[in-house]
Amino acid sequence: MTTTETAAPDVQALILVGGKGTRLRPLTLSAPKPMLPTAGVPFLTHLISRIRDAGITDIVLGTSFKAEVFNEHYGDGSDLGVTLTYVTEEEALGTGGGIRNVYDSLVADTVLVFNGDVLGGTDIREVLDTHRDSGAEVTLHLVRVGDPRAFGCVPTDDDGRVTAFLEKTQDPPTNQINAGTYVFNRDVIAEIPAGRAVSVEREVFPKLLAEGRHLQGHVDSAYWRDMGTPEDFVRGSADLVRGIAPSPALAGAKGESLVKAGAHVAAGAVLIGGTVVGADAMIGPTARLDGAVIFDGAIVEAGAVIERSIIGFGARIGRGALIRDTVVGDGAHVGARCELLRGARVWPGVQLPENGIRFSTDV
Ligand code: GTP
Questions:
Q1: At 271, which CATH number?
Q2: Which residue in 44, 134, 154, 161 has a CA-CA distance of 20 to 30 Å to 341?
Q3: What spacing in Å lies between the alpha carbon of 21 and ligand 1's midpoint?
Q4: Nearest-CA residue for atom 15 of ligand 1
Q5: Same domain, 219 and 261
Q6: Distance between Cα 70 and ligand 1 center (Å)
Q7: CB atoms within 10 A of CB 52
Q8: Rounded to an integer, what distance in angstroms lies between the CA atom of residue 34 and that of residue 59?
Q9: Protein residue with its CA nearest to atom 11 in ligand 1
Q10: What are the beta bridge partners of residue 38?
Q11: pLDDT tens across 241-260, in order?
């Protein structure tokens, strides 16, 4: 560690990136979720760039699962104009334990905590302003969603103070959900039990509330998506490509598709719906890709149709195959005219023969 002469920052950010990302398997068997390519760059690059553009350059990454991958890619963070510190949990400590585990690395009195898989458009400075103006000990970003039943609901009173934490309920009293971004006074982090797994949502926040502590909500309706499932990952990636989701890491024109350098797209192939084609990938003639996420080095042969699906690194999709709402793992080969639909997941390296899986009988 080097010492610096500069004053301690007012605000530091902590990004929690230590989860196993089970819902995105098999892609997360080889890469941690925040490092999966999203609109052409690791997802985490979008988040780090947003934090940097809000004027916060001192960022701690709370790692655990595949911790080394982050350091190998980002190093000290200078390429992105930030200073990165890594704090690793030998055994995953959960979201609350992950926050507690970085306590010794914190020098700022105010700590912005992010789940490392949230794609958002919220003005981060406004969340900090709410925290300062309300005098709260913790402020939570709450976002209004159409259907809150799948999320943790967080009602607030007329002053914006949090009144309850309701885990996934069928009859939510509010459409405000926990958006996975928090502002903590550093002292509160010291109160989280150390050395064991703790959930910030299920344990830390309910306990603070039961003690009558001041938790404030910052409510808005900005773009927000938790990228934890294949459906959300595909949607979020497409929204980035089309400019529906903002990201300072994506310069230039937004359109129906994004093709990375070194990729080859044959004449007559159709790329729509926010499709991304990774570096060195090859798309054959008359292939039709709608909302597809094609990782680097993958091959899509002539006439294949890929809709709302993720095709892993170096995977191959055979001629005339139909791939819809599916995840194909790294290096897998899907034979010609196979049909994979509705949540299918092909494990890495698996080889499906020509016509090997079909939903129709017209072979
Ligand atoms: P699933 O297994 O699919 O639920 O994904 P996940 O492991 O990422 O869990 P979840 O989506 O609930 O995690 C929210 C955020 O917290 C993600 O950015 C995770 O990387 C992070 N996270 C989850 N558990 C831990 C942990 O034990 N330690 C650290 N440091 N981060 C965690």
A1: 2.160.10.10
A2: 44
A3: 6
A4: 115
A5: no
A6: 15
A7: 18
A8: 15
A9: 228
A10: 41
A11: 999 998 999 876 578 999 99
Residue 20 CA: nearest ligand 1 atom is 7
pLDDT of residue 7: 64
Answer whether 152 contacts ligand 1 (Cβ < 6 A).
Answer: no
Q: Which of 93, 117, 224 to mutate to test the pocket of ligand 1 (most atoms within 8 A of CB)?
A: 117
Concerning whether 168 is annotated as a catalytic residue, the answer is yes
Query: What is the tally of structural domains in the chain?
Result: 2
User: DSSP string spanning 206-246?
Assistant: HHHHHTT--EEEEEE---EEE--SHHHHHHHHHHHHHTSS-
Kindly name the residue from 66, 168, 207, 254 that is annotated as catalytic. 168
- pTM score > 0.90 for this model? yes
What's the CA-to-centroid distance between 222 and ligand 1, angstroms? Answer: 22
Q: What is the pLDDT of residues 189-225, one digit of tens each?
A: 999 999 899 999 999 999 999 999 999 999 999 999 9
Rounded Cα–Cα distance for residues 131 and 188 (Å): 14
Q: What is the number of the ligand 1 atom nearest to the C-alpha of 15?
A: 18
In a domain, 5, yes or no: no
Instruction: Pick the range with the lowest mean pLDDT from 139-153, 174-188, 342-356.
Output: 139-153
Q: Which domain holds residue 150?
A: 11-230
Cα(132) to ligand 1 centroid in Å equals 28
Mean pLDDT of 109-138: 96
Reported confidence tier of residue 6, pLDDT bands at 50, 70, 90: low
Distance CA 104, CA 102 (A): 6
> How far is ligand 1, taken at its centre, from the CA of residue 89, in Å?
12
On the question of pLDDT at 346 being above 80, the answer is yes
Q: Whose CA is nearest to atom 29 of ligand 1?
A: 18
Q: Which atom of ligand 1 is nearest to the CA of 19?
A: 7
**What pLDDT, on the 0 to 100 scale, is given for residue 279?**
96
Same domain, 213 and 122: yes
AA letter at 42:
P
